[in-house]
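Many groups now describe folds with learned vocabularies. In that spirit, our science desk offers one protein's residues alongside their backbone shape tokens.
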Amino acid sequence: MENGVFGVPLHSVMMPFPFHIDMVNLVFKGILIGIVASAPMGPVGVLCVQRTLNKGRWYGFVTGVGAAASDIIYALITGLGMSFVMDFVNNAQTKFLLQILGSVILLIFGIISFRSNPTRNMRVSGHNKGTLLHNGLTAFLVTFSNPLIIFLFMGCFAQFAFVIPDHPVEMCLGYASIVFGALLWWYGLTWLVDKVRAIFDVSGIVIINRVIGSVVILFSLIVLFGTMFNLYTLPEF
């Protein structure tokens, strides 16, 4: 056994496992970031719900797909910018401060989400379905017109230590997992709205938004205090 397995040195047998564990970690973080970025009921969220109710589930889903396409562009811009910064601030104290900042941004985002009423500026969605491509494209443009999503990605990336400079393969997988997380959210939301369409009304949108805001607030407080008092250590890549 000291010589390894089937003549392969033991350290060679054991080396692959940390790599695989890190990759699973990265994918999990990406999925979580994708859900957090998509969940708040902003204009495109309301539009998704309206289209699901008026046109059908798949029209609502492609609305979410359009929003996810816009989000990943802003995620790439954020990650690229942070990768340049992290090359110069790769030390424990700066990482600690970045994680604190990320938690504060998430907390503010959660409070804003909880207090906002996404139905206030809601427009009536017609029953003219249009094409799936048109529905996805309009959702993309609505989401892309709000670059403030960059601050949310900055908070998530900082808190989860998501950006890994000089690791393009790993980061491609991470960004793909963000898209998967976003699509997972939109698929689940349209499924839920479609199932309860008979009892779903405007108040349902407000309730969903407040639940999401509460979850983000609770999560941000947990990670904020966990980081401040060193209750956990984020995995290093």
Notes: Confidence is low (pLDDT under 50) at residues 4-19. The radius of gyration is 20 Å.
